[in-house]
Amino acid sequence: xxxxxxxxxxxxxxxxxxxxxxxxxxxxxxxxxxxxxxxxxxxxxxxxxxxxxxxxxxxxxxxxxxxxxxxxxxxxxxxxxxxxxxxxxxxxxxxxxxxxxxxxxxxxxxxxxxxxxxxxxxxxxxxxxxxxxxxxxxxxxxxxxxxxxxxxxxxxxxxxxxxxxxxxxxxxxxxxxxxxxxxxxxxxxxxxxxxxxxxxxxxxxxxxxxxxxxxxxxxxxxxxxxxxx
Length: 229
Prior knowledge:
The chain is an alpha/beta fold and 229 residues long. Helices cover 52% and strands 10% of the residues. The protein is elongated and about 70 Å long.
């Protein structure tokens, strides 16, 4: 098994705590050793967990999709405290695992995500209340977006088709840089490109091997920006 590691702290000062980068890296290394896995990529970020458009996280997700590897994080809240983000991550087909709960199922991860988001909102509410003591009104806790996130599980057939197409298009664009490099290295025909992608350990969207037809399908999705060959 191959894994892509992602570590995050909110501030540089957290490096001194149990959620520090080194502590997270050690947890991921231990997971890799226990599962005879190779760490083929590592992404480290200092950014708030409230932001889901984090640059290094996006790079890690792209790397995991392109290589067919598993995204591994030390703790669920290191990835995101947003339940909707984690549900969308599952919809996107990214295989990920949390070292603090490696046997969690998609259902339990969803529940934990809701709990984590509620906790984050609770902390935020208490801080605001402390700064505005004169208002002295109760803090409303809970997850206002949780129901919407859960309802997305009951998508109709049309939404399912859209999701599949969007996922395929996203996968194709993830491979743009790789295909450009393959062609730049002199692999001109579809057969040569398929062979080179297999040599590089790049998996298809379904985790299989490349064939000329699958390369052609990916390039067709990149029209009108596809590369001539």
